[in-house]
Each structure stands twice: as structure tokens, then as C-alpha cells.
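Deliverable D2.4 — example input (C-alpha cells):
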């Protein structure tokens, strides 16, 4: 299971395979996944109803101040430099909602 920069395991969400492959690449210092609660009762709990999941792959950090170049993210009292990536939610397949299966 992927670890956050603070060493704790990430939540129990189901992550896109695309993210899992990047988390293990050489040079990755930390990975942060944006998490959101669904705004609608039928919203997907995995992606928060957006249909997409976003991860920030930190290649440098932690730092005390942000860099003047590149993409910076502040997390848990430190600055990180890296890139954002987005992928379809593997649970709702980009629909953003969970459809009931009736038998």
C-alpha cells in the first residue's frame, strides 16, 4: 500500500492502476491523493462524485519554503515539488455516481 509523506498508509480508497505504477517509480519521494466526500447521496464515495482522481507525485522535498519554479504542494507542514496527474475513478468509471444494481 502506498504511504503518505508522514509515513502513514493512504486511505482505503481504490486507486487507478495508473497511479500505483507511478508511486513505485525511482525518484518518487512521496505521493498525495486528493480526497473528497461526495456532495450528493448517490455520489461515488471513492472519488467524491467528480469521476476523476488526482494524485500529486513529489520528486523533491520536503522543504521549508516553496520553490519559485515548478508545481509546489504544501502538506503536513512541508513543501514538496512535483506534478499532478489525473485518472478516471476505477469504481464509478468516470460517471461520478454509483448506480444501484437491482436483481
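Example output (designed residues):
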Amino acid at each position: 500500500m502506498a504511504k503518505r509523506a508522514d509515513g502513514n498508509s493512504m486511505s482505503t480508497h481504490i486507486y487507478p492502476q495508473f497511479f500505483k505504477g507511478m508511486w513505485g517509480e525511482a525518484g518518487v519521494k512521496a505521493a498525495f491523493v486528493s480526497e473528497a466526500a461526495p456532495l450528493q447521496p448517490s455520489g461515488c464515495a471513492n472519488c467524491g462524485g467528480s469521476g476523476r482522481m488526482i494524485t500529486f507525485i513529489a520528486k523533491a522535498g520536503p522543504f521549508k519554503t516553496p520553490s519559485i519554479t515548478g508545481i509546489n504542494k504544501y502538506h503536513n507542514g512541508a513543501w514538496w515539488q512535483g506534478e499532478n496527474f489525473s485518472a478516471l475513478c476505477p469504481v464509478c468509471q468516470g460517471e461520478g455516481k454509483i448506480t444501484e444494481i437491482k436483481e
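The chain is about 5% helix and 30% strand.
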